[in-house]
Design goal:
The complex is a heterodimer of chains A (414) and B (595). Chain A is built from 9 helices and 10 strands. Chain A is α+β, with helices and mostly antiparallel strands. Classes of the chains: A alpha+beta (414), B mainly alpha (595).
Chain lengths: 414, 595
């Protein structure tokens, strides 16, 4: 009923408007009024509206700035953030006056020179001096903006210092894992071919290589057995053969690690955490950013930091945190406040909720916290509740086997 | 070649043989009919895309709330109990962007006005190849149908954002909408590129070869210059998109690894090794940035013409306007990397792109100041087209200034992919370019349909649109500076974004208002096309050649010989002349300086 009423209202509105237009059309024809003849009243009304609009627009801008100042990001919590914010403000100091000036000239002229039958427009085709002025002045301003911007950029993106702490940010749909180097101060190597349920980052250890090889061999063997022993539909046979191919190729990649005869020791003492990570105050942190599946982006707005996580390569971003979480909570008078790491590159349906809290500790607190964490060998990463992608996916094969057996038994019964 | 086709069409024009319905209205090779076909298709597509945007704005303002209208349109599959599904949210955002950028602002804007105005303003009987022109429209039509059809796919329309970055767009395991929906997106895009290339080639050839006697390049209206540069940009950049799309299709279906490497997804370590997702971004943005100007330049050209005509004053700095068009066109090819500062691209390369990008501000500033100087001491006839042109200059300046922030890589770190970006490019493309399109429709409607649009409704449409438009996109800069990322289904999981709720509600109210305002335009458009006041030959007292053709459309455009051109198109209010305009086909008097 409601829908019907709504449709009725819309239809009536359209009919009403059409009738109005018709009446207008007929009366204007009677008055011999042509659409292209803009009456002095129309000119005046629109000219005044242009001026009013300008004032309202400027007021809207100022109101928003005042009203929403509080929801903007708080002061930067990193060394380079202070510089980018300064750069930001200096840019605004140039751009906002330009915004007001140019918009003012535009709307003011539109109002002032609105049509008047008694006046004739000025025939002015060009003026080289004027044009030179507004080519050169923006050029000079832009040179300043470019040079200042690039100096800041190069400082931020320069090589990390020798004693920077390397922390890996590992992303997948839809969470983050942080990995610390552990006692040996080195992040162990990792590969997507080594990923298992208890090893979601695919860290490479000597034992891990053996286990993975065995696991893959067993899987391949099982699937080959299925092909020989069971009678399967063609599509299923093709699917299994493809899987065998994939697993075989994966196995040969893992085999390369074994044959390289290298000693993979560095990953053993690595520490991985989820949900919340800690970083020390005043130390340069060099984030090594990786992704397992699609592009994500590590966005840490309070630190003015961002870098994409790209599958197949490691990207990096470094900064020095300058305000501890506790200090920031006092400053903002918000005991709940947390720094945050967000995903800022669309990565799938739950993209909007792929976050991790970041805690900035004093050096002592940081060391204390780190000492409490278990290493990779002591306690492999537990999947957070809800993060069942790995386990689920690994079991798909088993599950579909079960389905098949069920189907077969049905056939047998018939 | 030019001469023979002239002779042919002239002969054609004299025959007046009756055409069948199909060859006149459907598979027409007449540029004026094709232009109308483009325009009507684009309006319908814009309506669809606008509706999608209202749907996701509802979710952004009132996350998780139930809306009957969502359930009505999207059904139980995508809006169970009236709550928008989160995968569908991404599909809506993606298809909204794709339709607006490609089908409305590229196909719609260039397709309509390049087709209508190029032959009429340069004094040609028709396009160089009417057949290719017809193909261009029908390829466009097919691609729009495929794109709209993808909305009805069970696994959802493409949802990886309008830029469809792989691996997300390459792997159905990553999101279901990267399955059939994405395949349709890619097919539609490939066909669209073909349409765009056919059109652009035709525009270039026509402008270079079919100008009437006396129509030197330095006497071309700025509209034609803008369409010319746009067409060149299209011809050079769209093939790269085609390549990008083709490689993505191969990665998806043929097992290649151009964009994929080291991926573990859905419990499988995938085979591809050695590809790079960043390669796709380079290819995409090599089109993507010129694309911004493919969208904007025609709007600027249209505005130049309308501002000069309605200011009753020559456009200020004609040569500087052409120079800045060429400069923007050239620079637009060497700035694509500014979309990729955070992509993992070498930061030094980023520096180069900062430099080239900020250079674009210089020709843009020249354009803005020249527009304003044209208004200065003019005698402004405030038609709806003129108001939209003034609106265009305002939004072009506002959007251009925030572009300077985004081009500065050090600042981009913190606003990249936030609502600041959404606000910026919507003010430039969603307002400036759209305003240019509206201005063009109001101005050349009498040429297209032989009737006038209703002026009063035009005013109402303009005022509601500029208020609604700024109301929607201006506050987005604040949302972005608060750190809110784009393409988020909801912000309720973050205490830091609580303060933005009422701003998001405000934006949605403005969006609904602006959407309703477009209803006025649609009504005015279709009403006037059939019932509007009959137009006179030159209603705006304009100088350009299209107003020397008869009101009723005819093949070959001019009943007799094509007029000869003797002067530039901007002789408005020339001293010593009785009227305040002197059409281009009026010979110079003895001793009269050209300008």
């Amino acid at each position: 009923m409601e829908k019907l009423l709504l449709i009725l209202v819309v239809v009536l509105a359209i009919v009403g408007l059409a009738q109005l237009a018709k009446v207008y059309q007929i009366t204007s024809e009677l008055n011999k009024k042509r659409e292209e003849d803009i009456s002095p009243t129309s000119t005046k009304v629109n000219a005044n509206l242009l001026l009013i609009f300008m004032i309202a627009f400027f007021a809207f801008f100022i109101w928003q700035t005042v009203e929403y100042w509080g929801v903007l990001l708080p002061e930067p919590a990193s060394e380079h953030g202070v510089e980018t914010d300064r750069l930001f403000n200096i840019n605004w100091l140039i751009l906002i006056p330009a915004f007001f000036l140019v918009n003012f000239l535009l709307f003011y002229f539109s109002w002032k020179y609105a049509y008047d039958a008694k006046r004739k427009a000025l025939y002015l085709s060009h003026n080289n001096t004027l044009e030179l002025i507004w080519t050169i002045i923006p050029s000079i301003v832009l040179v300043f903006i470019i040079v200042y911007g690039l100096i800041t950029w190069n400082k931020i993106m320069g090589e990390p210092s020798e004693d920077a702490i390397a922390i890996e940010l590992y992303s997948k749909q839809f969470d983050w894992t942080a990995r610390y180097a552990g006692a040996d101060d080195a992040l162990g190597e990792a590969s997507y071919t080594m990923i298992t349920g208890p090893n979601p980052l695919g860290l490479i250890t000597n034992e891990g290589i053996q286990e993975k090889l065995e696991e893959l061999s067993l899987e391949i063997e099982q699937m080959e057995k299925m092909l020989v022993e069971e009678i399967l539909p063609d599509s299923r046979v093709k699917e299994i053969k493809e899987k065998i191919g994939m697993r075989t190729r994966q196995r040969s990649k893992v085999l390369n690690y074994l044959e390289s005869k290298r000693d993979f020791n560095t990953a053993k003492d690595d520490i991985t955490v989820k949900g919340e990570m800690h970083i020390p105050l005043g130390k340069e942190v060099n984030f090594q950013i990786r992704s397992r599946d699609v592009i994500h982006s590590a966005y840490m707005p309070h630190f003015r930091a961002q870098m994409n996580a790209v599958p197949g390569m490691t990207t990096q971003f470094k900064f020095v945190p300058t305000i501890t979480t506790a200090e920031m909570r006092t400053k903002l008078q918000d005991p709940e406040f947390n720094y945050i790491l967000l995903c800022n590159k669309v990565c799938g349906s739950a993209h909007y909720n792929m976050q991790m809290a970041i805690v900035v500790d004093t050096e002592e607190d940081y060391q204390l916290w780190l000492a409490q964490q278990k290493t990779f060998v002591e306690a492999p990463v537990e999947n957070a509740p809800g993060d069942t992608t790995v386990a689920q996916a690994d079991s798909t094969l088993v599950a579909s086997e079960a389905e098949l057996i069920e189907e077969e038994s049905k056939v047998a019964v018939k | 070649m030019g001469a023979t086709s002239h002779a042919h069409t002239e002969e054609h024009a004299h025959h007046h043989h009756e055409e069948s319905f199909v060859s006149k209205y459907v598979f027409s090779q007449d540029h004026k009919m094709i232009s109308k076909q483009f325009l009507v298709t684009a309006i319908l597509m814009a309506l669809i895309a606008m509706m999608l945007s209202v749907f996701f704005r509802l979710q952004l303002a009132w996350p998780g709330e139930s809306f009957g209208i969502l359930n009505y349109f999207l059904g139980d599959r995508w809006a169970p109990d009236g709550v928008l599904d989160r995968s569908m949210y991404l599909s809506l955002v993606t298809i909204h962007g794709t339709i607006m950028v490609f089908f409305v602002l590229t196909g719609g804007l260039s397709g309509t006005f390049s087709n209508l105005l190029i032959p009429l303003q340069i004094g040609a009987r028709d396009m160089a190849s009417g057949f290719l022109n017809m193909l261009s429209y029908w390829f466009f039509f097919v691609s729009t149908i495929i794109m709209v059809a993808s909305l009805f796919v069970e696994s959802g329309a493409a949802g990886a954002g309008w830029t469809v970055y792989p691996p997300l767009s390459a792997l159905p395991q990553a999101m279901p909408s990267s399955g059939l929906g994405m395949t349709l997106w890619l097919i539609s895009m490939a066909i669209f590129v073909a349409s765009s290339l056919l059109g652009s080639l035709n525009y270039i050839v026509t402008i270079l070869n079919l100008r009437t006697k006396g129509m030197k390049m330095t006497r071309l209206p700025l509209t034609i210059w803008a369409f010319f540069v746009t067409a060149v940009l299209g011809v050079l950049s769209f093939p790269v998109l085609f390549a990008a799309v083709l490689l993505l299709i191969m990665d998806r279906s043929l097992g290649t690894s151009f964009y994929l490497s080291d991926i573990y997804i859905g419990g499988e370590a995938l085979d591809p090794v050695g590809g790079s997702p960043v390669l796709y971004q380079h290819l995409f943005w090599f089109l993507g940035h010129p694309e911004v100007y493919i969208v904007l330049l025609p709007a600027l050209g249209i505005t130049s013409e309308i501002i000069a005509t309605n200011s009753r004053k020559p456009i200020f700095g004609y040569r500087a306007m052409i120079g800045s068009l060429l400069a923007i066109g050239f620079l637009s090819f060497i700035v694509w990397g500014h979309h990729m500062f955070m992509s993992g691209m070498n930061p030094f390369l980023g520096s180069v792109f900062v430099f080239t990008t900020l250079l674009i501000a210089i020709p843009s500033a020249v354009k803005a100041f020249n527009y304003i100087t044209t208004l200065w001491k003019g005698n402004l006839v405030l038609t709806p087209a003129m108001l939209f042109s003034i609106g265009l200059v305002s939004t072009f300046v506002t959007g251009g200034l925030t572009g300077i922030i985004l081009a500065d890589s050090a600042l981009d770190i913190n606003v990249h992919d936030t609502y600041f970006v959404v606000g910026h490019f919507h003010i430039v493309m969603g307002l400036s370019a759209i305003f240019g399109m509206f201005a063009g429709v109001y101005h050349w409607f009498p040429k297209m349909f032989g009737r006038m649009m209703n002026t009063k409704m035009g005013y109402l449409h303009f005022w509601l649109t500029i208020i609604g438009g700024y109301g929607v996109f201006f506050p987005m800069h604040f949302v972005g500076m608060a750190g809110a990322p784009r393409r988020y289904y909801q912000y309720t999981d973050y205490p830091m974004f609580e303060g933005l709720t009422d701003l998001n509600v405000l934006i949605t109210y403005f969006a609904i208002m602006a959407a309703f305002a477009q209803g006025i335009f649609i009504l005015n458009f279709f009403w006037s096309a059939y019932r509007g006041q009959k137009a006179v030959q030159n209603p705006w007292k304009s100088n350009t050649l299209e107003w020397t053709t008869p009101v009723e459309h005819m093949h070959g455009n001019w009943p007799g010989a094509i007029p000869e051109v003797h002067r530039w198109p901007y002789d408005y209010s020339k001293p010593g002349k009785e009227l305040d305009y002197v059409p281009q086909n009026v010979p110079l008097e003895v001793g009269e300086e050209e300008h």
